[in-house]
Amino acid sequence: MSGGQVLIVDDEPGMLETLEDILDAAGYTVTAVSDGDTALAEIRTGRYDVVVMDVRMPGRDGVSVLVDSGAPPPPVILMTAYALEERLHEAREQKVHAVVMKPFAAPYLLDLVASAVAA
Amino acid sequence: MSEAEESSPSSRLRVSLRPVSLAVLVGLVALSVAGLLATRGVVSDQETKLLKQRTEEAGLTLSSALGAVQTQLSSLGAVYAASGNSAAGFQGSAGLLTTTPGGFSSIAIVKPGASPTIVIQVGKPLTAIPGEATTAIATATAKAGLAGTIAATPLFDGSGGARRLGWAYAGPTLKGNVVYAESEIQPQTASPATSSQPFSELVAAVYAVPRVEADQLITATGSAKDLPLKGKIATTRTPVGQGPPWLLVAKARRPLVGSVADVTPWAILAAGLLTALLACGIVETMARRREYAMALVRQRTNELERSMADLADAHEQLVRKERLAAIGELASTIGHELRNPLGVLSNAVYLLRGDLGGAPNDAAKRHLATAEREVSAATVIVSDLLEFARQRDPVLGDVDLAALINEVASVLPPPTGVELTADVKSSVSVRADRDQLRQLLLNLVGNAYQSMPEGGKVTVGAMSGGGVVRMWVTDTGEGIPADTRKRLFEPFFTTKARGVGLGLAVCSRVVEAHHGEITVDSTVGEGSTFRVTLPVVATPRQPADDEVRSEVTT
User: Fold this and answer.
1) CA distances from B107 to B94, B115, B443 (A)
2) Chain A contact set for B337 (CB, 8 A)
3) Residue B5: pLDDT band by 50, 70, 90 thresholds?
4) Which residues pair with B382 in a beta bridge?
5) How far apart are CA B436 and CA B431, in angstroms?
6) Among candidates B514, B443, B528, B515, which has minimal Cα distance to B484?
7) Which of B329, B332, B350, B382 would best serve as a mutation to test chain A binding (most A beta carbons within 10 A)?
8) Phi, psi of A33 (to 5 degrees)
């Protein structure tokens, strides 16, 4: 178990809350935000080791945040409940760390976060 | 006439006619025959008339010949009387007549009576007066009157075996005597009288009695074998002085109406038959053309009706497809919307397990396991629904099967009592749609769990070789009965109390889309093995996209 700064972004309060608790319990320092613009501002601070972000959000979506976050961004793990092939294609061009389908098993996400922090 | 009849070998040579052309043919043939008969009737009547006319002319000729005989004999009588019954005078005149070719053979002056006596005779000697002559002499004597008359005998056999004809002339100048003459009869010898008109046109026979009697034939212009004359004949009776008449029987040598008139009826028949055939042919052709046209119209009509039916079907299918698409879209939307709450639920259950970690409570642990299992089941159902509703083509990328199986194992952790083993080398990979393969394995593993309510072992394996990649999921569950196995991959087929029955249908579709094969081996009570075989190399559909995807999905 290694610590690290994790930014989680999701417009679903339930998802945001449970993820925060899971990552917190796993020993990470977690910041939770619920919209893309705030997330972008947070990422630009450069404090984060990994970003776990939902794709579909009102206003600025996850892919847009990834695109605008500037180089080199921290590793980003995108979560999606929807089949958004075109948006995800764009995300892949931005070297996203991983895409996970909701719902996912928590240990699986923790493995991905650990690998992203180590990268 | 049916088509079957036409095509049968026995009737191949038979000409089949439509009823209308047959009617035309029969009608015109009948008309031709009627024409033939009518014309023949007319020609025949004309022929009969002409034959009768010629025969009567021949009778007149014969009559005048007989008149000549009477004249000759009466002259001899006159000479005899004028010479004062001098034998020398009579012999001089009569001698000339007996030496003329075709003339009399003997001439005599006879004293009539019951037994006539010869006074003078010239030519071939007459030894006696035959009985036939006695009758003729008596007849002539009785009927002579003031003008004098002749009478002839029937033919008889005279001395020397020749057939003879006797003539008796009686007249007032002879003062009670009679001139008697005999001719030798050779019926087949032509005489000037019978070789000129009108005899030359006829085959004629003259009999010395008023009926046809072969031994009374005086003369015949045809050959002996034609006698007695038969067929179209005419007869006439020629009086011989005051005695019984002679019979003239005649037949035309050639048609008297002329050969053109004679063949006219046949010409009419031939023309009629030709016309009948021609008309029949024309009518038949028209009838067949009409039939062909009608058949064509029928065929086109049928085709049109079929097209319209097809169109209606297509329309119906389109409507159904649109409706299904709408339902699919709705299912898709709901499915996606359910994924977020399911994700939150999954997280919450995970957190709860952690919260309870320090305080072991069997009931709470069991309840958590139940919640975990049910969330997984719901996740799989939603994913199947989405996969089935979307029906998308696979997007190919390099898929690391060891990593994929790992992900499946972590997304779908085995329930309590079930042991999950991965049997895969880290190097096995395949060109495939990762999301679809993930769904395939999730379904197979999920089904394996559900087949073992009492617990057991599940093995997920993969290996490559021989140009294919093999994957298998083996369980030690309850097994699948044979009748269920057959329908296993049908959409909406399920034996579970809960479930929509799409899991294996989605598996089957995914494998098909990858040009692979899925099979199942199962023994009831021992367990089942699902085997998937995929080609290692598949045609990439979107190379650029696949490349990126392979990098991001692990």
Assistant:
1) 7, 18, 153
2) 81
3) very low
4) none
5) 12
6) B528
7) B350
8) -130, 160
Cα B135–B140–B146 angle (5° rounding)?
165
State phi, psi for A93 to the nearest 5 degrees: -65, -20
Q: Do the strands B418-424 and B243-252 form a parallel or antiparallel pair, or are they unpaired?
A: unpaired
Residue B207 CB burial class (10 angstroms; 0-12, 13-18, ≥19): buried
Nearest-CB residue to B548 (from A22, A82, A92): A92
B354 vs A contacts (CB less than 8 Å)? 25
The span from the CA of B502 to the CA of B516, in Å, is 19
- In chain A, which residues have their Cβ closer than 8 Å to the Cβ of B545? 89
Q: How far is A62 from chain B (nearest CA, A)?
A: 15
Q: Tell me whether residues A18 and B548 touch, CB distance under 8 A.
A: no
- Tell whether the model's pLDDT for residue B530 goes beyond 60: yes
Report the C-alpha gap between B412 and B380 in whole angstroms. 9
Does B340 sit within 8 Å of A15, measured CB to CB? yes
Per-residue pLDDT of B213-245, as tens digits, reads 888 888 888 777 777 888 888 999 988 887 788
Using the Cα atoms of residue B355, residue B357, residue B358 and residue B364 in order, give the sign of their dihedral.
Answer: positive
Q: Give the chain A residue nearest B552 (alpha carbons).
A: A98
Structure tokens at B471: 């994957």
Residue type, B349: V
What residues in B contact A18, CB-CB < 8 Å? 344, 347-348, 350-351
A26-50: pLDDT as tens digits: 999 999 999 999 999 999 898 999 9
Q: Please give the biggest Cα pair distance in chain B.
A: 202
- Rounded to an integer, what distance in angstroms lies between the CA atom of residue B320 and that of residue B215? 115
Nearest by CB: A81 against B336, B348, B407: B336
Chain B residue numbers with beta carbons less than 8 Å from the beta carbon of A83 are: 336, 386, 390
3-class SS at B460? strand
Cα–Cα distance measured from residue B285 to residue B292, given in angstroms and rounded to the nearest whole number: 10
In the predicted model, is pLDDT for residue B543 greater than 60? no
Q: Which single residue is written with the structure tokens 């990979």?
A: B429
Which two tokens mark A78? Answer: 């995108």
Residues comprising chain A, all counted: 119
- Give the whole-angstrom CA distance, residue B59 versus residue B53: 10
pLDDT of B340 strictly over 50: yes
Q: How many CB atoms lie within 10 A of CB B234?
A: 23
Interface test with B, best of A104, A109, A111 (most B CBs within 10 A): A104
Domains and CATH numbers, chain B: 33-252 (no CATH), 394-552 (3.30.565.10)
Give B214-227 as a DSSP string: GGGEEEESS-GGGP
Rounded distance, CA B367 to CA B374, Å? 11
d(CA B378, CA A83): 18
B334 touches chain A (CB under 8 A): no
Across the interface, whether the CB atoms of A98 and B339 are under 8 A apart is answered no
What count of Cα atoms within 13 Å lies in the side-chain half-sphere of residue A106?
Answer: 24
Whole-model pTM? Answer: 0.47
Distance CA B379, CA B363 (A): 24
Q: B342 to chain A: nearest residue by CA?
A: A103
Q: A5-9 and A50-54 as β-strands: parallel, antiparallel, unpaired?
A: parallel
